[in-house]
Amino acid sequence: MRCIMETKIKKDMFRNWFDRYVAGFTAGKDTALDVVTNIRLKKDHSDRVVQEILWMADQLGLDNESRDLAAVMALFHDIGRFAQYARYRTFVDHRSENHAELGVKILQQHQVLDCLPADQADLICRVISYHNRAALPDDDTEECLFYARLLRDADKLDIWRVLIDHYQHRNQEDNPAVELGLADTSDISDQVYDRVVNKDIVNARHVKNLNDFKLLQIGWVFDINFTPALQQVKDRGYIDAICRTLPPSDRRTRIKQVVADWLDKKLRS
Ligand SMILES: [Fe+2]
């Protein structure tokens, strides 16, 4: 692939466009508070996913060009979230539209990637469009799938942080958009529990309440692609932190144990 991201000018151009585009959603004096909060949430998330992906790129020894390309993917991966929230006041894709596809449309409409060779712009769009899929397609190039795996890991590393922070402070600052409006009941659905103890990712269709949603997030660990990301999950104590926000039960104890054992085994291998 040709070297195109070598200049600081291009990186600054993307960053400037991103900042201006995002600022546009909260520019009005009378912008509703939930819009300001959620635009800010996704902006900060995007910024941190850039940091996560750069850290992962360094851990994996990527060259500068690949590193820069990964950073652009991370910066723009949730660009559809801003219009999604402003238009629909939700982050639930099936109640609004697919935010990854919407993001690609926005990048195209604003001709953001037109300064890049077509193959590179196309690669960025494909990776973004795959970032929220239940599973990656098996018919794309190894290069594309590599970046998609990298982005999905970097994204999860920060979403865990956002969610844990939210669960720990939800009594003080409620934000229903983060919990997708799910009921905070005391149970865990059987299908969801079974998936996690069988070390499998949870199907979003089976999520019935907030505890199920937390188990779905615990189950993301089984979908992590790269060892440095997995090590971060352990070092940052993400799984324990989510478990602590579940009501005490035998199921909670078992989930914590199963995931901790799986993580240790995986990191040893
Ligand atoms: Fe994201």
From TrEMBL:
Which residue ranges does the record assign to the HD domain?
A: 42-160
What the entry lists under InterPro entries is as follows: HD/PDEase_dom (IPR003607), HD_domain (IPR006674), HDIG_dom (IPR006675)
Instruction: Give the species.
Output: Desulfotignum phosphitoxidans DSM 13687
Name of the protein: Metal-dependent phosphohydrolase, HD domain-containing protein
One protein family per Pfam: HD
- Signal peptide positions are none
Top-level division of the source organism's lineage: Bacteria
> Which keywords appear in this protein's UniProt record, sorted alphabetically?
Hydrolase
- Keyword flag Cell inner membrane: no
**What lineage is on file?**
Bacteria, Pseudomonadati, Thermodesulfobacteriota, Desulfobacteria, Desulfobacterales
- One GO molecular-function annotation for this sequence? hydrolase activity
